[in-house]
Amino acid sequence: MTVAVPRPTTAAPPRVVGSALRVPLVTGELVEYANLDHAAGAPCLEQVRDAVDELLPWYASVHRGAGFASQVSTRVYEQARAAVRRFLGARSTDAVVFTRNATDALNLLARSLPRHTAVVLFDTEHHAALLPWRGPHVRRLRTPSSPAAAVAELDRALREAPVGPRLVVVTGASNVTGELWPVAELARVARRHGARTALDAAQLAPHRPVDVRALDVDYAVLSGHKLYAPFGSGALVGRGDWLQAAEPYLVGGGATSRVTDHGDRLGVAWAAVPERHEAGTPNVVGAHALAVACDVLGRHWEQTAAHERALLARLREGLRTVPGVHELALFGGDRDRVGVVSFTVGGHDAGHLAAALSAEHGVGVRDGAFCAHVAVHRLTGDRRALRASLGLGTTEEHVDRLVAALRGLVTEGSRWSYEQRDGRWAPCDDRRALPPFLR
Questions:
Q1: Which of 319, 329, 88, 110 is closest to 212 using CA atoms?
Q2: Could you report the per-residue pLDDT of 54-105, keeping only the tens digit for each?
Q3: Is residue 372 scored above 90 in pLDDT?
Q4: How many CB atoms lie within 10 A of CB 359?
Q5: Non-local CB neighbours of 342 within 8 Å, separated by 6+ positions
Q6: CB–CB of 176/203 below 8 Å?
Q7: Which of 39, 163, 195, 213 has the most crowded CB, counting CB atoms within 10 A?
Q8: Average per-residue pLDDT for the chain
Q9: Least confident of 57-71, 359-373, 406-420
Q10: Quick one: which of 91, 405, 57 has its CA closest to 219?
Q11: Which helix (H) or strand (E) holds 111?
Q12: How many CB atoms lie within 10 A of CB 303?
């Protein structure tokens, strides 16, 4: 897959807030938290926290305020668009619409398609990319056996698609297995058939440079909470014509240029993109946080990639030493991937293992089907799985502790009793103290 050339780097990877967080165990000890759940939500970068603290005294509503603080906040908000565009290597003409997250962005795009647009996607997508497209014009392709098979299957599907507007939806990196998808090759096939391509970059963007122009995709979406900026902001970046022709995603203040009273009805002239789809008071703090995270990550790709490659190799090698572990893979083989590993453990319930890893060892992993039920159930035979995902806050000790703890749970069993509460495993007689702000 074609990616952007890394920018110049500085000496060390960025640091995250909470890297020294200590959590209680059911045994009464305190240990450093091993956060191996970055694929669900990454911690905040220290630079992002500092930037938010710097902005907060200046915070005010944007765009139509005459006050100086409003003008400052407006400048911050609009500069954030430029930062996101730069981070994704987008075209100067591409719209940057701020949303709540990648899910919100994909739903916005789905609402903006021309009538009878044929949508083609693989059924292994995350629910955020799988569910917004419904109806008779949507074609879902089954899990391909390889990247080459994915390209060939898409080619066949587009040859059979009805004449008219077409959209291909594809992920950059699987949130289940971490495997990279052949985005550039799929986009090339789509272009040959007159189709546009929407890239779900939520899992790819925190780990690798994304270049919209080099990949030749028409749209890209991302989430701040996976990019070390957990302040409720995401973005849809891409061609503005479909967005401009569509009714606003939400209606209200900010989405209009003029509203007039005609007695029995209101006359409305909608604003141009991006304001057209950003009704209400926007999340200035979230947009600024996302922009800062984009700029910071863009200066550290070399260190980020090296850090992740070493830890991913260590994790996968360690898991191979645990009896009964089966790593999930869409394509098989030792293919390039980001720091996400999902697996099952023969004879053991994933939820029980996850609860014991947390309660007895201070290790946070994800269990279940990861909002990609079709993919996980197909790979596991309708079982739940465990997922360990790496990021800037991960250390070798965290990886080693997961492997050692998992091996102990498999070979010796848990040291504590557990019960199911509301469908989730939890330790019995759990006396771990909550942090003061929750008491």
A1: 88
A2: 999 999 999 888 899 999 999 999 999 999 999 999 999 999 999 999 999 9
A3: yes
A4: 24
A5: 176, 177, 327, 328, 370, 376, 385, 386, 387, 388
A6: no
A7: 39
A8: 94
A9: 57-71
A10: 91
A11: helix 102-111
A12: 17
- Nearest CA to 62 out of 79, 48, 76 is that of 76
Q: Which residues are catalytic?
A: 371
Is pLDDT of 171 > 50? yes
Q: Residue 227 gets which letter from DSSP? A: T
Q: Looking up tokens 């591409």, which residue turns up?
A: 94
Tokens of 293: 């995270």
Place of tokens 């009896």: 323
296: tokens are: 């910071």
Task: Return d(Cα 245, Cα 240) in angstroms, integer.
Answer: 9
* Residue 132 contacts residue 312 (beta carbons within 8 Å): no
The structure tokens listed for 317 are 């090698």
> pLDDT band at 12, cuts 50/70/90?
confident
CA gap 319, 326 in Å, rounded: 9
Contacts of 86 (CB under 8 A, 6+ apart): 294, 295, 298
Peptide bond into 136 cis (omega under 30): no
- Assess whether pLDDT exceeds 60 at residue 336: yes
355: its two tokens = 């609860």
- For the chain, report the end-to-end CA distance as a whole number of angstroms: 49
Strands 138-141 and 118-122: parallel
* H or E stretch at 222: strand 219-223
* Structure tokens given for 227: 């990019």
Q: Which two three-digit tokens encode residue 109? A: 């795009």
